[in-house]
């Protein structure tokens, strides 16, 4: 069982930046890929970014590539999402998610981008971008 707690959401103006954090309660020896999704009311959860347990592999949603950066800090079992040049349409609840990596298994980019791949979810943090 993994508990995920997001922080860092808030209100920012168009073009501004925010840094989200997700702290995982998993054992440091556990291998979990961790990602971020976002959702607005009435819409499906949208893939934002993900990073493998080793940190060697990361993927981004088309809408955020070049503006968002995902990273992980192993010493604190934490993943960060640096969001720059934010747009009003990116106002949403941002969720942290994780799934356990199987040893010696290669996961394709498609699998990483699916919400159904992730077994554990945080409660979400609100990001509001004002125009």
User: Mind describing the biggest β-sheet?
Assistant: 7 strands, mixed
Order of helices and strands: EEEEEEEEEHEE
Q: Using the alpha-carbon principal axes, give the shape.
A: globular
Helix content: under 10%
C-alpha Rg, in Å? 14 Å
**Proportion in β-strands:** over 45%
Rounded mean pLDDT score:
93
- Separation, N- and C-terminal Cα atoms: 40 Å
How many strand units?
11
Query: Helix tally?
Result: 1
Category from helices, strands and their pairing:
mainly beta
How would you describe the overall organization of this protein?
Strand 4 and strand 5 form a beta hairpin. The chain is mainly beta and 131 residues long. Helix content is 3%, strand content 47%. The chain has 1 helix and 11 strands. It has one helix at residues 109-112; strands at 4-7, 10-13, 18-24, 32-39, 46-51, 58-60, 68-73, 78-83, 92-100, 120-121, 125-130. The chain is globular, with a radius of gyration of 14 Å.
Topology record:
Layout: E1 4-7, E2 10-13, E3 18-24, E4 32-39, E5 46-51, E6 58-60, E7 68-73, E8 78-83, E9 92-100, H1 109-112, E10 120-121, E11 125-130
Parallel strand pairs: 2-11
Antiparallel strand pairs: 1-3, 3-8, 4-5, 4-9, 5-6, 7-8, 9-10, 9-11
């Amino acid at each position: 069982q993994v508990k995920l707690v997001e922080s860092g959401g808030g209100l920012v103006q168009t073009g501004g930046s925010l840094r989200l954090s997700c702290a995982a309660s998993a054992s440091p020896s556990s291998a979990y890929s961790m990602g971020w999704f976002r959702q607005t009311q009435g819409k499906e959860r949208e893939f934002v970014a993900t990073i493998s347990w080793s940190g060697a592999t990361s993927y981004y949603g088309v809408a955020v590539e070049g503006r968002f950066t995902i990273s992980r800090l192993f010493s604190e079992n934490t993943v960060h999402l640096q969001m720059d040049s934010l747009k009003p349409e990116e106002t949403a609840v941002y969720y942290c998610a994780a799934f356990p990596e199987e040893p010696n298994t290669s996961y394709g980019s498609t699998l990483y981008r699916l919400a159904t791949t992730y077994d554990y979810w945080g409660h979400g943090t609100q990001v509001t971008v004002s125009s």
